[in-house]
Amino acid sequence: MEAVYVMWLRQLKKTWRSKARIIGSLGQPLLFLLALGFGLGAVFEKAGQGNYVNFLVPGIIAMSILFTAMFAGIEIIWDRQFGFLKETLVAPIPRWKIMLGRTLGGATTSSIQGIIVLLIALLIGFRPVSLLGALLSMAFIFLIAFMFTAFGTAIASRMTDMQAFPLVMNFIIMPIFFLSGSLFPLTEAPAGIKAVSMANPLTYGIDGLRGTLSGASHFPILLDFSVIISGAILLGLLGSYLFSKIEV
Amino acid sequence: MATESPAISVENLVKKFGNFTAVDNISFTVPRGKKFVFLGPNGAGKTTTIKILTTLLHPTSGNIKVDLYDPVTEQQLARKSFGIVFQDPSLDDDLTAYENMDFHGAFYDVPKKLRKERIEYLLNLVDLWERKDDFVKTFSGGMKRRLEVARGLIHHPKILFLDEPILGLDPQTRNHLWDYVRELNQKEGMTVFFTTHYMEEADKNSDIIAIIDHGKIIVEGTSQEIKEKAKAETLEEAFLKLTGHSIRKEAGTAQDQLRAMAKLWGRR
Ligand SMILES: Nc1ncnc2c1ncn2[C@@H]1O[C@H](COP(=O)(O)OP(=O)(O)OP(=O)(O)O)[C@@H](O)[C@H]1O
Ligand SMILES: [Mg+2]
To answer: Domain for residue B3, yes or no?
Structure first.
């Protein structure tokens, strides 16, 4: 088990040491919060949809988790390029444990990122409905983080070069983000968008966060929870399978 | 009996990358406790063979055993038996020298106290103890290489693979490292499988020599036997006689370079 811990610790140390990256990756959610929160708030409320900040904050928390978690997973490409991956692949540890350690590490750092965004939202006036809700939201934060770190790992296990980055960014992360009900309610969306969003596990993660933090969810919280935990487990299994097949 | 079986046995090993055959039907065995050196020009297939033996690549065909275990089907058991120093970099630049060593010890289950002792000993051996808390990215090429080799020695494996371990190291460090490896070989019966382009070093530190060229083993035996066969005075002379004086125009290597360029610049 020490191997899992070490891989986890490594991820934390590396993130902590690149503070520029932590700060840099807060820029985007902050911009979205301010620009959309203040820019679209009035329109949203005029349309009778209620308080936009309450609606938006869970979506932005999920967004920052999605981006950091996917990139934490994809970091395997870096390790492949710089060679450290080999060191872990020949170690006498089942590869799923290495993958688990990495994924827990990436999930931990991106959860922290999500929590920082929540704290920033508090500063600009967001208020969770209850303390219990805020505590429950942590479970969603961690599961979203775990799921997408595992997804990033699965993708990166099959890719060998940096060119993969823009591809993953534009064809995977962006659609997952925009088609998840993060910025606008799905109730009013065209059927096509709605259908795609219903198949997107992040939709349920965000809905769960809305339920726990803002007190208004589209689906029952238990459904959100079931979908997101199943997604985390399935992608965890897929990631560790693909990771165990890596050749260098 | 288990102890009688060879440390490494390879039968009809073939590895193809697409149409290119990097390892072409080679067979050899390394008896336990021996020091085996694999010599061959650039691109001969040495690293590829080591990668297959150490579970990093799957062979195209052939039977291989590392300490009784098949690296293809019994990866976990095979990995327990060996240690490896790679030809290419494999350190984590964002960690300190000590962290790199310590994490390796954790991967190989070296007990904490012993781990500490060995790390201190080895970092002193390669003259990096003073720099142990510095990030690896601040090291020179030779210092990284020293750390890389030192890390490979923390867990005292049954079989040690060294892929050009001394490349770029100064003579002092080279001697220290070979002394230590020889000591492990004698005291713990550790089998050593290494590659090098320094013929003297190969001659001095090996019991058995195999020369591989274009993926095929062209000769195998003791230094004496190989010199006699090639009617040469020195191992270097024998090597050149057997593999030819010309620098090979290797399809593979040129392709590799192109591939690396393509990766860097991409088809944008
Ligand atoms: N992943 C790969 N894809 C395609 N060709 C490869 C790959 N890895 C190695 N090769 C080719 O296989 C051949 C053998 O390479 P290998 O690295 O085993 O040589 P080597 O004997 O270790 O050489 P050197 O002394 O330069 O380290 C080379 O021609 C190389 O280009
Ligand atoms: Mg090589």
So the answer is: no
Range of the domain at B69: 8-261
Contacts of A89 in chain B (CB under 8 A): 55-56
The stretches of A75-94 forming alpha helices (DSSP H) are: 76-82, 84-89
Tokens of A8: 């986890």
- Bridge partner list, A60: none
A18 touches chain B (CB under 8 A): yes
pLDDT digits (tens, 9 = 90+) for A121-159: 999 889 999 999 999 999 999 999 999 999 999 999 998
Using CA positions, which residue lies closest to atom 16 of ligand 1? Answer: B45
Residue of B256, B213, B55, B157 lying closest to A90 (CA atoms): B55
Q: How far is B221 from chain A (nearest CA, A)?
A: 29
Is residue B46 lining ligand 1, measured as CB closer than 6 Å? Answer: yes
For ligand 1, say whether the CB of B54 is within 6 Å of any of its atoms. Answer: no
Nearest to B86 by CA among B57, B122, B125: B57
Q: What is the DSSP letter of A170?
A: I
Name the pTM for this structure.
0.90
What is the per-residue pLDDT across A1-41, written as a single tens digit (0 to 9) for each? 789 999 999 999 999 998 888 888 899 999 999 888 888 88
Share of chain B above pLDDT 90, in %: 87
Whole-complex ipTM:
0.89
Of A10, A83, A88, the CB nearest to B88: A83
CATH number at residue B72: 3.40.50.300
Determine, for residues B263 and A18 on separate chains, whether the beta-carbon distance falls below 8 Å. no
Q: How many domains does chain B have?
A: 1
Confirm or reject: Cβ of B144 under 6 Å from ligand 1: no
d(CA B192, CA B182): 9
In a domain, B190, yes or no: yes
Assess if residue B76 is contained within a domain.
yes
Number of Cβ within a 10 Å radius of residue A84: 23
**Do A231 and A140 meet the contact criterion of CB atoms below 8 Å apart?**
no
Q: Kindly give, in sequence order, each residue whose CB lies less than 8 Å from that of residue A20, ignoring residues fewer than 6 positions away.
A: none
Domain residue spans of chain A: 2-244
Those residues with Cβ within 8 angstroms of residue B240's Cβ, 6 or more apart along the chain or in another chain: none
Report the run of H or E that residue B37 belongs to, with start and end. Answer: strand B35-39
Helix (H, G, I), strand (E, B) or coil at B217: strand
CA-nearest residue for atom 28, ligand 1, is: B43
Query: Around A212, how many Cα atoms within 13 Å sit in the side-chain half-sphere?
Result: 24
